[in-house]
């Protein structure tokens, strides 16, 4: 009659796996918290049931027989798979959260803070997708749960949550300014290289952030078509260019606060101008608890950032 799996043979196979792995009944007994005689008896019962020896007993140790080698490979693999599966099932279920975020905000602001979210919510796995397209209300694509965008007030959906007001700063490296001493004059702006994020949000008027800042600061209009400039479609590219002493950028405080704090960039004229748009977060109409947890964390992180930013610039914002 063929040998079948039953509770008795499973127990003997457990002893066989340990003995075959360690090639010692004594070591197997220690690993299984049994006596050496109990392990030896289990192996004898298994060999008697199978009808062939599994070990060759030598004065100085054990060796597996050819059939013992074959059976041990299968037994070891089976117990390993079982242990791995049991360990996996003991872990809490992990919820997957798909976040769509503007590339520059993701890189400069969100990424340095995501570890804090993970510490608070180890059961939520964040999948971050960098993209710039407008998210239509309740029409999230590709399984997106949460979207973070930079939008002018008139474009913010009713269900959008504003994260904080944004401000614009003309910034450059100290090295660049040593070669181009600042002056609020039309000639200065025409003599330096302007680093331009030409479309800060989808369908934004070209150079809207430079235009906004200049309108607030300059007593006389400055034509952005005059002078040297680099055009980018991402703020992070303009920031990188500025850090490499390429020119002057208009940066949002959320994206360059750290560079300003460390002195890698300098607020050229010490001015903060209200931005024409705000960062907002949108979520699926039917959101699970993992989405709510992320949005609550994000709103709290933004509030903390806003407080730190006020201290950094030493003025109400």
UniProtKB/TrEMBL annotation:
Signal peptide start-end: none
Protein's name in the database: LysR family transcriptional regulator
SUPFAM superfamilies noted in UniProt: Periplasmic binding protein-like II (SSF53850), Winged helix' DNA-binding domain (SSF46785)
CDD domains cross-referenced by the UniProt entry: PBP2_GcdR_TrpI_HvrB_AmpR_like
Domain named HTH lysR-type: residues: 13-65
Keyword Transcription regulation: yes
Statement: the UniProt record of this protein carries the keyword Transcription regulation: yes
A Pfam family that the UniProt record links to this protein: LysR_substrate
């Amino acid at each position: 009659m063929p040998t079948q799996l039953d509770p008795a043979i499973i127990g003997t196979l457990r002893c066989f796996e340990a003995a075959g792995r360690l090639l010692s009944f004594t070591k197997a007994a220690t690993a299984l918290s049994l006596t050496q005689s109990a392990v030896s008896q289990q192996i004898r019962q298994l060999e008697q049931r199978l009808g062939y020896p599994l070990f060759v007993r030598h004065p100085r140790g054990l060796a597996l027989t050819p059939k013992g080698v074959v059976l041990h490979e299968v037994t070891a693999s089976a117990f390993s798979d079982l242990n791995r599966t049991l360990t996996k099932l003991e872990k809490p279920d992990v919820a997957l959260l798909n976040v769509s975020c503007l590339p520059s905000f993701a890189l400069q602001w969100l990424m340095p803070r995501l570890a804090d979210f993970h510490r608070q919510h180890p059961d939520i796995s964040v999948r971050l997708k960098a993209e710039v397209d407008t998210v239509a209300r309740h029409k999230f694509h590709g399984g997106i749960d949460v979207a973070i965008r930079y939008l002018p007030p008139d474009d913010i959906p009713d269900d959008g949550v504003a994260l904080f007001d944004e401000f614009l700063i003309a910034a450059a490296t100290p090295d660049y300014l040593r070669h181009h001493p600042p002056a609020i004059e039309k000639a200065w702006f025409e003599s330096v290289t302007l680093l331009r994020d030409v479309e800060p949000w989808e369908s934004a008027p070209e150079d809207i952030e430079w235009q906004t800042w200049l309108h607030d600061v300059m007593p006389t209009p400055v034509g952005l078509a005059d002078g040297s400039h680099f055009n980018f479609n991402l703020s992070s590219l303009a920031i990188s260019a500025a850090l490499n002493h390429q020119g002057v950028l208009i940066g949002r405080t959320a994206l360059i606060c750290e560079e300003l704090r460390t002195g890698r960039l300098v607020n050229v004229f010490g001015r903060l101008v209200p931005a024409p748009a705000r960062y907002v977060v949108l979520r699926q109409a039917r959101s699970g608890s993992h989405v709510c947890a992320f949005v609550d964390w994000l709103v709290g992180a933004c509030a903390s950032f806003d407080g730190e930013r006020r201290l950094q610039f030493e003025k109400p914002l």
